[in-house]
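Sample intake — Bifunctional lycopene cyclase/phytoene synthase
Collected from: Tothia fuscella
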Amino acid sequence: MGYDYALVHLKYTIPPALALSILYRPLLTRLDVYKICFLITIAVVSTLPWDSYLIRHRIWTYPPDVIIGPTILQIPLEEVFFFVIQTYNTTLLYLMFNKPTLHSIYLRAERGPNHPEGPLNQQWKHYRWGGQVLLFFTLLAAYAFTSVLGRKDATYMSLIIWWAAPFLLLLWSLGYQFLVGLPFTNTILPIALPTVYLWIVDCIALRRGTWVIENGTKLGIHLTWFGLSELEIEEAVFFLVTNMLIVFGQVAFDNALAVINTFSSFGYAPPALPSPLLLVQALLKPASEYDQGRIDGLREAVNRLRQKSRSFYLASGAFEGKLRIYLIMLYSFCRVADDLIDEASSLDESQKWLNKLEEYLDRSCDEKESDDSITAYIRESFPKWAHSALLMLPTKELTAQPLYDLLRGFEMDLVFCSAKSDPFPIACEADLQLYSARVAGTVAQMCLELVFALLPSHENEAARRSLIQAGSDMGVALQYVNISRDIEVDAQLGRVYLPTDWLKEMSLTPKQVIQNPRGPKIDALRRRLLDKAFAIYEESKGAIERLPQQAKGPMRVAVESYMEIGRVLREGHFQFHRGRATVPKIRRLRVAWQTLLRS
Ligand SMILES: CC(C)=CCC/C(C)=C/CC/C(C)=C/CC/C(C)=C/[C@@H]1[C@@H](COP(=O)(O)OP(=O)(O)O)[C@]1(C)CC/C=C(\C)CC/C=C(\C)CCC=C(C)C
């Protein structure tokens, strides 16, 4: 009996597992835990018989003085633990690299030459066949070396290939599109980092004799990269393919989840934890049935969010599944509606967009109106860049009133342009409160309607209404921060949201603010508005803790990362991004991390 193998774990596999767990802890969800357990189970069950065979046939051995003693199918317990911890570490690394990614946008519809919408993406067929042929010939070569040519020294390598290649073939055939489409950072990095690390650990273990690959069944080729002179080629391949299997397995899981969450038309009701059967069903759904328009629309919405709002882009990564998709669609709609009205070349044009948006809402909220006629209206009335945002707004999960109120809020902005803004529309604090409730309280209300539509909650109807009211107040607080930040930007557009009677107390007029939006008086007014924002925030933030478990942490991130702009403004040292004060990226990440840690 000895502790050498156990020491390898204590020194080299457990410390990274602890470090990754601490780092990922705030982001860890129930779904992640499910994924980790799912993969560990598959890894252990699929490796045990193979590893036991290797040990029983003395292809690799463990000197009795390096292991503690207990075995499963003759495999030392330390070795079984290796499968668990390697899968755990690689899975966590994958989860970390994939957290910011919305996987749905990497799905691809495969259309054949006779598809009604025309052929598309024929190259996918080549990728699928390419991978399958490569893996098939690798299997064949392994067989030829050992069985036909009788090369005993290729035994270990062939056994690795015969064990891993069928799994890789299966996973490739099911998810090749997704694997090829995902950014390298999502797939190659979580394979490469643990592989190189385990190569180093393996060299150390082989050098110390913790495990031994018997002569006669190995090729005897050593890799000499990075000074890894003890690294047998079989070991290098083994660690590479095992990490590939773990990552391919995760990719298949995410592929299935993306199908379940993206296409409501397939009729999957996304459960919190999808069963293996549902995952397989989703994976087997032919890619030719995917709605490419929906995938493209979602991609546009994600790009819009990424380009226009750093805070909400960061926060969106903390949400999961269908809720994340719907929130991104909601953002896209709000942004597009705001831009159509704000960026119009004249007051008349703004009014025209407002009327068209109202007509769009009338039709969308009318149960008698067919989807086709709404789609036709959008296509004939709005510019192409706005289509997907309008087509994909999840109106069925929303009530009509906040959508109409949002338009009323945008309408208030138009008053700034009319009659040379005299008098200015925000005369007193009540006007500011009303405006903010319309443009931001409504947004919060809709976010929460989506939360309650998609997640299970113990709160009754009355409690939900009070939560939505608290959320709406929080929206007002966020809008006050937004206004405090944008005093200069708004002044350039001829807008002053600081109430006229506040200005009067400082012997200022809105026109003077437009001419010079800086100075100690403006700083004092900004502080006053921020104080109001933080007072509302303090009153409403407790309500977040009563939201469904899966929404609590992410909502906190959304609110806190925006309120952090207010904190930075209060402190007075901020960076500028496109003329606006922003929170440095590292500080935003720290806030998000600490906020989630409180869960
Ligand atoms: C991840 C996530 C929550 C995403 C969705 C957020 C969403 C739908 C935002 C809509 C944004 C938008 C374009 C609205 C149009 C009107 C407007 C301009 C409102 C201002 C937002 C700022 O957006 P902007 O794109 O300008 O962002 P940048 O400053 O450039 O980064 C607003 C300040 C309003 C935003 C308000 C909310 C998102 C509501 C937040 C409150 C909750 C989610 C409720 C919290 C719950 C409780 C129970 C208290």
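Post-analysis note: The longest helix spans residues 233-262.
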